[in-house]
Records
---
Amino acid sequence: MKKTAILLIIAAAFASLSGAALAQQKDKGKAKANTKAKAKKKQPQTWKERAAARLKPPTTQQKNAIRQALPGKSTVQPKKDRRVLVFWRSETFIHTSILHGNYCLGEMGRKARAWKTDFADEYSVFTKENLANYDAVIFNNTTSVTFENDAQRDALMGFVKSGKGIAGIHAAGDSFYKWKLAASMIGGQFNGHPWTAGGTWAFKLNDPTHPLNKAFAGKGFWHKDEIYQYKPATYAGDDNLRILVSLDMSQDAVSKVLDNERFKRYEKDYGKGPREVPVSWLREFQGGRVFFSNLGHNESTYANPAVLKHFLDGIQYALGDLSADATPTTKAGKMRPALAPAKK
C-alpha cells in the first residue's frame, strides 16, 4: 500500500509538472504569435509609409557628384519659360535612387536654365487644370504606377494631345499595367532584367548622329546599371519608336548573360541567343512627344555626365525645345550603329 501511494504521488507530481510545462509552452507560443502580429502591423502599408521606410535623400557627397556631372548649359535655349512636373510614386518595388533622380532633375533644369521643377507623388495632381501649368511630365522610376480614375487618365492624355511632352526614367518602363494606352505611350513594359544593377554593360548607339545621342560623341560606351527587356505583347517596337541606344550584344559580357540557365525561360519570348534590347528611344504620340531611357536604376547613374546630358537633351525634346527626328527606326533609312569599345 505504501509503495502504491508513493507511486501515485510521484505520478501526480509528474502530471502537474507536465501540465505546467505545456501551459508554459502554450504561453510562449501565444507570445510569439502576438509579437509576429505586432511586427506585421508595424510594417509600412501606405505609399507614404513605404517611401519613408525605403528612401534616403542623397548625401552631401552624392549631391556634389550630381552637380559636378550636370551639363553646364542646355543644347538649345528654351523657346519660353518651361515648367516640368516630376512624378515619383511607386506602387510595388521602390527604387532607392528615386530621390537622387529628383535632386538631379531639379538641379539639371536650374543649372541649364532649361525648366523649373515641381515634384509630386499624389495622383490628385493629374487634373486638366493643374497640368495646364506644365510643359512636360517626367515619370521618375514609377514602378507599377496606376491612376485612380478616368478623369485623371483623361487629363494626362489630354495634356499629351495638346502637344505637351512625356519623359520616362527607368521604371517608367515598368508601369501602367492597368492602362494599355499609357503603356503604349511609354513604349515598353518590364519583362525581367538579366543585365543586373551590379554589372557593367556595353551599349551601342543605334543612331550615332541623332541629336539626342550627341552626349556620347558618336561612340558606344560602358555603364553600370540595371537593364530591362520588354514584354513582346506591349513593346511598341522599332516600327513606332526611334531607337537611340541598345545593349551591345557584340560584347561577350552582355551576350553571354543569356547563356545562364536562369534566363532560358525567356527563350519562348525572344528565341535563343543574342537579340536587340533597346535602352533609350523617342517617339511622337497622339500629338505629343515622348522620351524614355531605361538608365537610372543605380544612384551612380545620376553622376554620369554623358548620361545626364542624354537625359537633358531627351527632356528638352519632350518639352518641344530641341528639334529631333522621331521617324521610327524601320522607316528612317539605314544607320550604322556605333559599338562599344573593348572593355578595359
---
Amino acid sequence: MLVRLLTIAVAVPIIFLCTYLGGISFLLLVLLLALFSLNEFYALMVKKEYQPSFLVGNFFTVFFILFAYFALKRNWEPAHSAILTVAVAVALGSGIFLKKTKDSIPNLAITLFGLIYIGWLFSYLLFIRALTDHGAFLFFLMLTIWANDVAAYLVGKKFGRIKLSPYVSPGKTVEGAVAGFVVCVTAAAIFSFYVKELNLTHGLILGVIIGIMAQISDLVESLIKRDAGVKDSSNIVPGHGGVLDRMDSFILTAPVVYYYLVWLINK
C-alpha cells in the first residue's frame, strides 16, 4: 500500500501540471501513456503466441495523437476519419510482408485493434483538454473516474459479496460497482460547481455517463488480461501494475464524454 500511495503522490502532480499547462507538455504525456499502453497490449498478445506489428501500431498511435494535437483549431473530424481509413489500409496491407501466413488474420486484427483501441481513442484526451483554456473538462473527467475507481475498490474489498463478472474479473463485485457509480455521480455534481461551463444538470448526466462507461471500459481491459492469463498488463507502475491498467477506465469513456460536451454544451 505504501508503494501504491508513493506512486500516486509522484504521478498525480505531474499529470495535473501537464494537464493545466497543455501544449507540448500535455502532448508528451499523452504520447507516453499511449505508447506504454499499446506496447503492453501487444506484449500480452505475444504471450498468446500472436505476432502483432509493433511498428505499424506504434507509428499510427503516434500519428493519431500528433494529428489530434495539430488539428485542434481546425475542422478535424473529416481528416481524422480519413486518417483512420489509411491506418486500416496500411495495417491490413502489412500482412503481405509477414514472414509466415499462419495466424495472419489474427495478427492483423490484433494490430488493428491495438492502434484503434489505444492510438485512436487516446487522442480524445487531447480533444477534451482543448475545449477549455486549462483543461477543466479533463480535470472533471479524471477526478470523477478516480472517485469511481477508489470507491469501487474500497467498498468491493471491504463489503463485496456478489461477483460482478466472475469470468472476466473475479475481484470486482456488484457492491463495489454500485458504490463506484454513486460516488462518481456525487463527485460529478460537486465538481460541476467548479467548472464554469457546466451546470448541475449536465454535471449529473456526465456523472451517470462516466459512472457507467468507466466500469465498462475497465471490464474490457480485464477481459483482455483474462484472455492473456495475466493479472496486470505489466509491472512498470510500482504498486499499480501497468500503464494500461491505470488508463483502462478512460479509453471508452473519453470519446463518449467528448461528444456529449461538443454536442450538448460547447455547441
---
Amino acid sequence: MSNQVNFSGYKPVSFSATVITELMIPSYSNFGGKIHGGILLSLMDKVAYVCAAKHAGNYCVTASIDTVDFLEPVEVGDLVSLMASVNYVGKTSLVVGIKVVSENIRTNSIYHTNTSYFTMVARDENNQPVQVPGLILEDRTQVRRFIEARRRKQLKHNYREESDRVVMPDDENLCRQMLEGERCTIAN
C-alpha cells in the first residue's frame, strides 16, 4: 500500500498568489490629500478577483468582505502593493487574504495599511456556482491561515444567527431605557 497523496483536483496556494502594485496619483486623493478608502477597496477587490480566478479556473464574484480597517493613511505618490493568497476553500467559495502595504519611495518607509478577507464564489459559463479545486497547504503559515479562515467562517455564521434574534422591543419605555447614555434622542 502506498502512502502517496493524490493531489488531482488540488492546487497549491503559491499557484494563485498575486501581487499588484500601483502608484497613488492625485486623482485618487480626497480633500485632505490622502487616498480615498474606496480606491483601496477597489484595488483590493481587483487583486482578490485575480487570485480567486487563478485558483478556481473560472470567473469569480465577490460574495462578502470581512472587516476593512484603515490602519495608516496612504499618501499621493506612494506605491501601494496588495498581496493576495487563497487562505481557505469551500465547495464553491474561496477566502482570499489580502495584505496592503504603502511605500514612500522618497523615504523608503513601508507601512502596513490594511488586511482583509474577501469571500469569492466561482461561477461557470452559465453564471452558476461551480466547485473549486482543493487547496494544497505548503507550510505552517498556510495551515494557520486556513484554520483561522475556517474559524472566522464559523464566527460569522454565529453572528448572523445572533443578529437574527435582535428585535426592537414594542414597549416605548423599554426602548428609551435601552437608549439611555447613548448619543441620540427620540424626536417625539
